[in-house]
Amino acid sequence: MRFRASMLISAAAAALLVAAVPASAAEAEKDPCFDAHGSVKEVLDACADFIAKGSDDTKLLIRAHTIRAMGLSATGSLDEALDEMTAAVELNPKRANSYFMRAAGYDAKKDYDKAIADLDTAIGINDADADYYLLRGTVYSHKNDFDKALVDMNKKVELDPKATNGYSSRGALYRKRKEYDLSIADYSEVIKIDPKSTQGYIDRGWIYVLNDDLDSAGADFDTALKLQENNAMALVGRGVVKSRKGKPTDGSADLKMANRLEPGIFDEVRKLGIK
């Protein structure tokens, strides 16, 4: 079983995977904290009960705290989620994933220095996990320290060259650095690995817009819409391309449709540097 650290991360962050401790004990197989059934509240309560019983199985206690952290973050209780991950760290200070999970929470709270400190510790314990570098690179990017972010994202790609999230995250970083050709190359790698990646075509399409290559941008947005009809971001992209190529009426129709599907979508486009 694997947990997503992204539940502790803001929406802007990349979804990252963290290996959970396997529930090997028979006790865990029967306990509602671990059986993946029930509502979020029921699971939170079950894990609290398990912790309160004072189990002598440290691995299961860490897992219970981690599950509670994920559930609490999903309900918006980020401070309480961080408390749970701190408890997990205290149970086993040599477990890298606990620092990683807590760092994701600190990133969500924009407490970037604490996030980086935890990731430094995680990498010090296990320097072979690519996602630790990816999250630290993401945090550095949030701090606008793009040089350090790039070092970490390069390491992510080096360690995990078949994963799309390394290329897509680095592609976004290159966009922020206005290195559009390098950004296009990374999003092209995403598409090469996963030819049905709607997001890959959308992301590359916007870089083509920034690079004034409207023909290539239009082709990418068209492909994205074939893969996922009525994707608001792709519709905005196609509308922008049509308008800039002298077809304002056609472009306006796409833009209006996108706004109906997803009000506020234009704010997301502006964040990409599109004017």
From TrEMBL:
SMART domains linked: TPR
Residue stretches of each TPR repeat: 130-163, 164-197, 198-231
Q: Which Pfam families match?
A: TPR_1 (PF00515), TPR_16 (PF13432), TPR_8 (PF13181)
Q: Which domain of life is it from?
A: Bacteria
Q: Does the keyword Repeat apply?
A: yes
Q: Which residues form the signal peptide?
A: 1-25
Signal found in the keyword field: yes
SUPFAM superfamilies in alphabetical order: TPR-like
Q: Which UniProt keywords apply?
A: Repeat, Signal, TPR repeat
Entry-linked Gene3D superfamilies? Tetratricopeptide repeat domain
Q: What is this protein called?
A: Tetratricopeptide repeat protein
Q: Which organism is it from?
A: Methyloceanibacter superfactus
* Classification lineage: Bacteria, Pseudomonadati, Pseudomonadota, Alphaproteobacteria, Hyphomicrobiales
